Amino acid sequence: MTVADPISEIASLRQKNDPTWVLRVSQVFSAQPERWLTLRKLSSYSDLCQAAQEQAPQLERGQLAPATVRDGLEAMILLPGAPAGLQWLQETGALRACLPELDATVNFSQEAGRRHKDVWEHTKQVVWQAERRPAVRWAALLHDIGKVKTRSISPDGKVCFHRHSEVGARLFEDVSRRLGFDGPTRRTLRFLILHHLRPNSYLESWTDSAVRRFTREMGEYLPDLLDLSRADITSRRPGRRQEGLENIDRLSLRLSDLRRADAELPILPSGVGNAIMEHFALPPSRLIGDLKRALEQAVEGGELEARQESSYYLPFVEKLLAAQQSEPCLCQE
């Protein structure tokens, strides 16, 4: 076998006026990243890149069906060696054609003087570390696109990206339209991009109410969000990544413990109904049941702590009763 054979084999995927071959090559490299590392050292690799660069612009909006581009990208990022395929797309201009918001992060530093803190390099590592589920890998790919528009540098040289997750979520709307994501997928990815920093802010000092509120706010997206947050920890400082992963694990364990406790034990004390009737001079009625259900919802929503003394819940009941009394009467005479 000659030295050129490996390149010729890849080049055989090329089809005239069909830029999707660029995506297919990215899938080959993602499936076999060591092959990409070998081929890019050959002089003929530059010829292959040039051929791809000539057709890559056709991947832009309107040139191909959105589903064709989206499916090609998804097949690539779900493979084990996705960073190799991503780098191929960037070097050939295909990334700029498909995802200009992501291409803008190339050589965009997160910290002055630290090459590995380049947003693009960080993103590729996050994709590689992410669970190989479509939602998690897409969110990993796009979670930091808001950094380009939000970078600021303080007088002491610290780089900040204030509200980059919100800006990234807005930028994703254009990505979603361009690639034709369906409604549920669009909502999932936007949510993950918007909230990708939330789990990493967890502190053990959070109250149970705060954890329950976090659970309620994250809703059905919580499992994907936790996996995205784990993947987003890429620090090379000794022990920093392990510390971050352990913090996410502590949050996950806390969530499991609360779910188990709530399933095994009532979240309100057994005498809270009697305490409400005695304190507010109320007779047994449907109102007492309604108040208890409102308390349970407040606990589940993170507004109140669970399994406290009955007296703890009385101020909240007082607010509920006051709100009822202030409601306008809708009865007709």
In words, what does this structure look like?
- It contains 19 helices and 2 strands.
- The protein is mainly α and 333 residues long.
- It has a two-stranded antiparallel sheet with strand order 1-2.
- Helix 2 (20-31) packs antiparallel against helix 6, helix 12 (164-179) runs antiparallel to helix 13 (183-195) and helix 14 (208-218) packs across helix 16 (240-264).
- The chain is elongated, with a radius of gyration of 27 Å.
Structural class: mainly alpha
Largest sheet: 2 strands, antiparallel
Portion in strands: under 5%
Rg value: 27 Å
Poorly predicted segments: 329-333
Number of strands: 2
Average residue pLDDT? 90
Query: What overall geometry do the principal axes of the alpha carbons give?
Result: elongated
**Which sequence of SSEs, written as H and E, runs from N to C?**
HHHHHHHHHHHEEHHHHHHHH
Report the helical percentage: 55-70%
Strand order of the largest sheet: 1-2
Beginning-to-end CA distance, first to last residue: 97 Å
Helix count from the secondary structure assignment: 19
Could you write a compact summary of the structure shown?
The chain has helices at 5-11, 20-31, 33-39, 45-55, 66-77, 82-92, 94-98, 100-103, 119-129, 134-142, 147-150, 164-179, 183-195, 208-218, 222-231, 240-264, 272-280, 286-300, 310-326; strands spanning 151-153, 159-161. It has 333 residues and is mainly α.
